[in-house]
Design brief:
- This protein is mostly helical.
- It is built from six helices and no strands.
- It has helices at about 5-20, 45-50, 55-60, 65-70, 80-90, 95-100.
- The longest helix has 18 residues, at about 5-20.
- It is elongated, with a radius of gyration of 21 Å.
Length: about 120
Amino acid sequence: MNKADFESLLQGIREVGQIRRGEIPPARLHVFVKGERVKGTDARTIRENLKLSQSEFAKMLNISVATLQNWEQGRRAPDGPAKTLLRVAATHPEAVLHAANLGSKPRLPRRKSKAKTR
């Protein structure tokens, strides 16, 4: 390890100490709330209601599959515009499909009807 890298590492360690003592605020703060979901932004429920695969839903929202998986598994939570986009996808999926420009004619998969059998 060269001297510049070592000094950078040492500076980072000093900053961690300052943050822990409350002397400086952290540059980023991640809050993890196990099992809590924001109403209207539960990505898995919205995706399942639309009967889309993870890759289809991620493409529809223009996000990576990894991001969607993190939301669905509770490792991360959507924030800001992502929350709004999920709410729109839940109530007006055709609008999101149209905005995503996924084809000439935005369509959702057909839902199986519960037809009576003879």
